[in-house]
Amino acid sequence: MTLRVKRLPQAVALLALVLFSLAPLYSALVVASRDNADLARATPPLVPGGRLLDHLGELVDRVDLGQAMVNSAVIAGVVAVANALLCTVAGFAFARLRFRGREALFAVVLASAMVPTQLGIVPVFMVVDALGWYDTLAAAIAPGLVSAFGVFWMRQACLEAVAPELVDAARVDGCSLARVYWHVALPALRGPAAVLGMLSFATSWNEFGWPLVALDPNDTPTAQVVLSRLAGGYYTDYPLVLTGVLVSIVPVLLLFVLFARKVVAVLLRGAAETGR
Known about the structure:
It is a multi-pass membrane protein. Residues 69-259 form the ABC transmembrane type-1 domain. By secondary structure, this protein is mainly alpha-helical. The chain has helices at 2-32, 36-39, 52-62, 65-96, 102-112, 121-130, 137-141, 148-161, 164-172, 177-188, 190-205, 209-214, 223-230, 238-248, 250-275. It has a single domain, classed as MetI-like fold (Orthogonal Bundle), CATH 1.10.3720. Helix content is 75%, strand content 0%.
């Protein structure tokens, strides 16, 4: 009983944090299920209404959100898998392989993470256009296949999870670098790689600037570009916009639900390693 009383403040604080985190989502649900007339009242509504299905039907008639979400899913899915695999390879190389210039090259990777992505839009677009990839999904996928954060994340994970003695023993037994990576490093890094893939999926799914530049908004749009159309013009239908927002975040929420335990386990393990 005494232990429960001691944990009561923690439980209250966690509950308040959860409610605070869910407040924007609940607010979006309330707005999406109401009319603009309800939102214009002096006292805004605090409970959902009954117009959500009507707004969903209107959303389908106004924009091709289904195709846009398919495009976003393909882009984000490929980016997530590529980051999980390629960043793991790079992280393993920086952590456990000895080669000339390793530290300098890793410093360049870290420095690239400090450069705003907006500065690279013009040169990257020139490359994409020269390759003939404009208005193709490849143009939206290619710049996000590897990230500096992902390389740093997997390098740190490899330093903690893959012992150098295992790598040396595998090389002594005659394993090639590819086999050492596949049979020694990758099994130990599946958890961090899954978390990196989830984060990469969410980041790519929410990306707006680069898809707007690399893709024709009228031909191959993404979910975020389609939602920007609803918010444009002289008049903004906020219930319709928030309906699109709710639909667009469903894949990210499902992904988090599927990988929630993996994320928590990896983060707790990292915290435990840091505290030693």
